[in-house]
From TrEMBL:
Keywords: Hydrolase. SUPFAM superfamilies: HAD-like (SSF56784). Gene3D superfamilies: HAD superfamily/HAD-like. InterPro entries: HAD-like_sf (IPR036412), HAD_sf (IPR023214), OTSB-like (IPR044651), Trehalose_PPase (IPR003337). It catalyses: alpha,alpha-trehalose 6-phosphate + H2O = alpha,alpha-trehalose + phosphate. This is Trehalose-phosphate phosphatase A.
Protein backbone atom coordinates (compact mmCIF):
# COMPACT_ATOMS: atom_id res chain seq x y z
CA UNK A 1 0.00 0.00 0.00
CA UNK A 2 1.39 3.41 -1.00
CA UNK A 3 1.48 6.47 1.23
CA UNK A 4 -1.20 8.07 -0.95
CA UNK A 5 -3.48 5.04 -0.51
CA UNK A 6 -2.99 5.14 3.28
CA UNK A 7 -3.66 8.89 3.34
CA UNK A 8 -6.88 8.61 1.33
CA UNK A 9 -8.17 5.99 3.77
CA UNK A 10 -7.94 8.61 6.55
CA UNK A 11 -8.82 11.87 4.73
CA UNK A 12 -10.78 12.72 1.58
CA UNK A 13 -7.93 13.38 -0.86
CA UNK A 14 -7.82 15.36 -4.10
CA UNK A 15 -5.18 15.65 -6.80
CA UNK A 16 -5.39 19.05 -8.54
CA UNK A 17 -3.51 19.77 -11.76
CA UNK A 18 -3.40 21.96 -14.81
CA UNK A 19 -3.14 18.81 -16.91
CA UNK A 20 -6.24 17.04 -18.21
CA UNK A 21 -8.13 15.03 -15.62
CA UNK A 22 -7.74 11.86 -17.70
CA UNK A 23 -3.95 12.33 -17.83
CA UNK A 24 -3.73 12.88 -14.05
CA UNK A 25 -5.90 9.82 -13.41
CA UNK A 26 -3.66 7.84 -15.77
CA UNK A 27 -0.62 8.86 -13.67
CA UNK A 28 -2.18 8.04 -10.27
CA UNK A 29 -4.90 5.47 -11.04
CA UNK A 30 -6.69 5.41 -7.66
CA UNK A 31 -10.47 5.63 -8.10
CA UNK A 32 -10.95 6.46 -4.42
CA UNK A 33 -9.39 9.94 -4.90
CA UNK A 34 -10.88 13.15 -6.23
CA UNK A 35 -9.18 14.44 -9.39
CA UNK A 36 -9.41 18.05 -10.59
CA UNK A 37 -7.87 18.56 -14.01
CA UNK A 38 -7.66 21.57 -16.32
CA UNK A 39 -7.18 23.90 -13.33
CA UNK A 40 -10.38 22.69 -11.66
CA UNK A 41 -12.61 22.85 -14.73
CA UNK A 42 -12.99 19.05 -14.88
CA UNK A 43 -13.53 17.15 -11.62
CA UNK A 44 -14.00 13.44 -10.91
CA UNK A 45 -14.44 11.71 -7.57
CA UNK A 46 -15.71 8.56 -5.88
CA UNK A 47 -19.17 7.42 -7.04
CA UNK A 48 -22.22 9.52 -6.25
CA UNK A 49 -23.81 9.60 -9.71
CA UNK A 50 -23.07 6.36 -11.49
CA UNK A 51 -20.59 6.22 -14.37
CA UNK A 52 -17.46 4.15 -14.90
CA UNK A 53 -13.76 5.05 -15.06
CA UNK A 54 -11.08 3.38 -17.18
CA UNK A 55 -10.80 0.54 -14.64
CA UNK A 56 -14.56 -0.10 -14.69
CA UNK A 57 -15.07 1.33 -11.18
CA UNK A 58 -17.97 3.66 -10.46
CA UNK A 59 -17.04 7.36 -10.25
CA UNK A 60 -18.75 10.77 -10.21
CA UNK A 61 -17.66 13.28 -12.85
CA UNK A 62 -18.36 17.03 -13.12
CA UNK A 63 -17.18 19.40 -15.84
CA UNK A 64 -17.78 23.00 -14.83
CA UNK A 65 -17.15 24.26 -18.36
CA UNK A 66 -19.07 21.63 -20.35
CA UNK A 67 -21.69 24.11 -21.59
CA UNK A 68 -19.03 26.44 -23.02
CA UNK A 69 -16.99 23.81 -24.89
CA UNK A 70 -18.19 25.07 -28.32
CA UNK A 71 -17.02 28.60 -27.42
CA UNK A 72 -13.64 27.27 -26.23
CA UNK A 73 -13.26 25.45 -29.56
CA UNK A 74 -14.01 28.70 -31.45
CA UNK A 75 -11.44 30.59 -29.35
CA UNK A 76 -8.89 27.86 -30.10
CA UNK A 77 -9.52 28.07 -33.85
CA UNK A 78 -9.30 31.86 -33.79
CA UNK A 79 -6.04 31.88 -31.81
CA UNK A 80 -4.57 29.16 -34.01
CA UNK A 81 -5.27 31.13 -37.20
CA UNK A 82 -3.85 34.36 -35.70
CA UNK A 83 -0.76 32.96 -33.99
CA UNK A 84 1.30 32.94 -37.22
CA UNK A 85 3.76 30.49 -35.68
CA UNK A 86 4.74 33.02 -32.96
CA UNK A 87 3.46 30.67 -30.27
CA UNK A 88 2.07 27.21 -29.73
CA UNK A 89 -1.72 26.97 -29.36
CA UNK A 90 -3.13 23.70 -28.00
CA UNK A 91 -6.75 22.67 -27.46
CA UNK A 92 -6.83 20.99 -24.04
CA UNK A 93 -10.57 20.20 -24.36
CA UNK A 94 -11.75 22.39 -21.48
CA UNK A 95 -9.16 25.13 -21.92
CA UNK A 96 -6.82 26.56 -24.53
CA UNK A 97 -3.09 26.59 -23.82
CA UNK A 98 -0.84 29.21 -25.40
CA UNK A 99 2.92 28.79 -25.08
CA UNK A 100 5.51 31.25 -26.36
CA UNK A 101 9.20 30.41 -26.55
CA UNK A 102 12.10 32.37 -27.97
Amino acid sequence: MTLLEMWQNIFPTAIISGRSRDKVFEFIGLTELYYAGSHGMDIMGPARHISNDMQGKEVSSFQTASEILPMIDEVFKSLLSRSQKMCSVLNRNILVQITHSN
